[in-house]
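To illustrate the input format used throughout this study, we show a single complete record. The first block contains the structure-token representation of the backbone; no residue identities are included at this stage. The design step must infer an amino acid for every position from geometry alone.
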């Protein structure tokens, strides 16, 4: 049985499966078409003495439960209550992607934002102040990642464990 559970949420094509694979240290086929991940995928990883279950939820734009993807994602967050949700956000499409983050926060879930593909946003001249973004989201941690190159993944996992461990009944790992 896992010590902690992390759910990965996010819009389609934001890099959820890439983050899932990077966290677990494996490669799987990643598709870029709607509905590729309709059911959740699960795997495990270890970090700082914790065994962590990682759940890759279907890509969805919202949790309003109009589509199968939305139902699966919402029901998992509400009913299974993961220790923390990492919302993988496409740094180049913040406005569209942050709607889901707000809905996750409204459900009362503990949240960490993975500002993924931040290298592409940088190359487009987009400047994102992660401290102001975090502040605007009620203090929700925001971490820059480039999952396709593994950048920021260890830091993202460390932040997710930091947010989840006290709630799961664990003292901060030494």
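Output of the design step:
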């Amino acid at each position: 049985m896992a010590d902690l559970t992390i759910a990965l949420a996010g819009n389609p094509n934001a890099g959820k499966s890439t983050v899932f694979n990077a966290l677990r240290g494996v490669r799987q086929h990643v598709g870029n078409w709607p509905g590729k991940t309709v059911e959740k995928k699960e795997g495990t990883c270890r970090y700082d003495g914790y065994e962590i279950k990682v759940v890759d939820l279907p890509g969805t734009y919202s949790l309003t439960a109009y589509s199968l993807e939305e139902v699966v994602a919402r029901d998992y967050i509400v009913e299974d209550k993961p220790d923390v949700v990492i919302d993988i956000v496409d740094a180049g499409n913040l406005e569209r992607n942050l709607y889901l983050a707000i809905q996750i926060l409204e459900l009362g879930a503990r949240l960490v934002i993975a500002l993924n593909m931040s290298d592409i946003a940088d190359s487009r001249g987009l400047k994102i102040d992660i401290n102001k973004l975090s502040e605007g989201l009620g203090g929700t941690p925001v971490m820059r990642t480039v999952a396709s190159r593994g950048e920021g993944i260890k830091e993202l996992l460390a932040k997710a464990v930091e947010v989840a461990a006290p709630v799961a009944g664990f003292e901060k790992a030494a």
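Structural context for interpreting the output: Residues 4-164 form a domain with the Rossmann fold fold (CATH 3.40.50.300). The first helix runs from residue 16 to 24.
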